[in-house]
Amino acid sequence: MPNQKILYITTEMYPYQEDTNMAAVVNKMALKMHNEGNDVRVFMPRFGQISERKFQLHEVIRLSGMNIIINDLDQPLIIKVASLPGERLQVYFIDNEEYFKRKQYYVDDEGNPFTDNDERAIFFARGVIETIKKLNWVPDVIHLNGWMSSFVPIYLKTYYESDTYFKDAKIVLSLYNEKDADLDKNISEKLAFDNISGLKALDNPTIKSFVIESMNYVDMVVKGDEFLDEDLDKGFNETSAPKSEYVDVDSINQLY
Hints:
Blueprint: E1 5-10, H1 21-35, E2 39-45, H2 52-55, E3 58-59, E4 66-70, E5 73-83, E6 90-95, H3 97-100, H4 117-135, E7 141-145, H5 151-156, E8 170-175, H6 187-193, H7 207-214, E9 220-223, H8 230-238, E10 243-244, H9 252-255
Parallel strand pairs: 1-2, 1-7, 2-6, 7-8, 8-9, 9-10
Antiparallel strand pairs: 3-5, 4-5, 5-6
């Protein structure tokens, strides 16, 4: 079914990240849908490991310049864009000096999770939502990949609930076996600043608990890894959302 507008929100994508299943799957899904005549956009964080020179990222001035308020602090939103190497597929990067300049992804050199991972996820989710609105591009399908993207449906169904911009978009969540880590215990205060409360994940805020929480806010949950770890598999089996077992990339269009 061509001529759909498909938005991929991801934390990983080949070739910007290599050697992970998620990065490979997102690359293949996006390219397949693009080559079948759909209007595809990809959004991901501009982690410090992604070389701007190598991948020819450049800032989109007309989209940059917004501020996202996180817990009463203004954080500048910088949008960069590049074409997937060798393809006419645009990838947008959410950037901010405070959150994404560091060379590591989620843990420091000693293996300790960054204390602001929660703020980075909130900034990423809200940054994607605000940028899409500024593009004046309304997706038919929003496909989420990676734990940071799980904050998107939570925000869309709470903070942005009265905003009709995304009302017809169907949200698909892919589950992957990502490394779990604790999130800041004060995340409840940061979400409360955006009038978000009552989430079960706040009882024990971790990367995994928010992914499991987000299953309650989407239209379809699908296994991104063929075999999920015990907690994710339990969440998958218990969610009331429509769900799909692992889908081969060649059949992904049937999901949409």
